[in-house]
Amino acid sequence: MDRIRLGLVLHPTRDVSPVVDTIAAWAARHEVALTVREQDRQRVPESVRPVPEDHLPAGADVLVSIGGDGTMLGALRAAVPDPKPVLGVHLGKLGFLVEVEPPELPAALDRLLAGEYTVESHSCLACDVCGDDVVAFNDIALIRHPGQGFVSATLAVNGQQYGYYRCDALVVSTPSGSTAYSYAAGGPLISPATRAVVVTPSAPMSGISRSVVLSPDERVRLELRPGSAPVAIEVDGQVIRDGSTSGAVDIGYRADAGLVVRLDPARYQERSQLKLSLLDLPLLPEQLRELLPENLRRQLGRREMPPPR
């Protein structure tokens, strides 16, 4: 059986030590090499070798993302130059991309070692933001500063002017990202099997007021108009530029830019559909708990009890 090299991508702030310890113990039993970014060396056991951040994807056969969707997206972005499969371990709150819960991790790693998994391909947006090259697997957004006016920008597709926007935010998303900011802004849900780019305004005041769905072969250009409010630019939820009042963002679609490990695609799809349906329920978490059968409520109560001191 061939050995694999695992690169660990850690949530930047959460305590990931229980999951890392599980992986380290499993790796020791199976003689699997583990690496992590140099800046995370204090968060892992000594058996995990630290490497420069840009060397992590290249030196691994599979990346293991420990966190939520944001951590997973970061792992995918890091591996764009040389895409490697990414296994997501869920420590977040909702998580549409991650598949494995911590109790399932040892069995998941066994299947990874045995090659018993499939790889799901993900597209990204290749963006030129005022001369800087960035990639987004979910979305890129131009967002106004509260109290300082509105985002005012023009839309051009393949060099042809389509119209303008005056809104709180402009969100350009991939099909996978259609369940994130674009969905919250009123955009459509796009099947991950579809190749498309979606441009959605949030709280439009004038100009284009509906989502525009474009072909992956079409290039999008958003250019700030004179008098636009200061704009923050987010890529997959991370601010990369703040306070811009001029400039342009050019966006193209790139297929097969990221690879996600799937151990049970049918079960993952069922979970994702349930999570998506819960987004439309105007209920608090404690209200949702009341909808569960009594035996499940008792189990949840036991899990949430603090450990004895």
TrEMBL record:
An example Gene Ontology biological process: NAD+ metabolic process
Alphabetical UniProt keywords: ATP-binding, Cytoplasm, Kinase, NAD, NADP, Nucleotide-binding, Transferase
The entry assigns this protein to a family as follows: Belongs to the NAD kinase family.
Q: What does it do? A: Involved in the regulation of the intracellular balance of NAD and NADP, and is a key enzyme in the biosynthesis of NADP. Catalyzes specifically the phosphorylation on 2'-hydroxyl of the adenosine moiety of NAD to yield NADP.
> Which cofactor names does the annotation list?
a divalent metal cation
Please name the source species: Micromonospora sediminimaris
The organism's lineage is: Bacteria, Bacillati, Actinomycetota, Actinomycetes, Micromonosporales
The active site is formed by D69
> Is the keyword Transferase assigned to this protein?
yes
Recorded catalytic reaction(s): these are: NAD(+) + ATP = ADP + NADP(+) + H(+)
Subcellular location(s) per record: Cytoplasm
Residues the entry annotates as binding NAD(+): D69, G70, N138, D139, R166, D168, A203, Q238
What are its GO cellular component terms?
Answer: cytoplasm
Annotated GO molecular function terms are: ATP binding; metal ion binding; NAD binding; NAD+ kinase activity
Under the heading SUPFAM superfamilies, the entry gives: NAD kinase/diacylglycerol kinase-like
Task: Write down the PANTHER family for this protein, in alphabetical order.
Answer: NAD KINASE
**Protein's recorded name:** NAD kinase
Q: What is its EC number?
A: 2.7.1.23
Gene name linked to the record: nadK
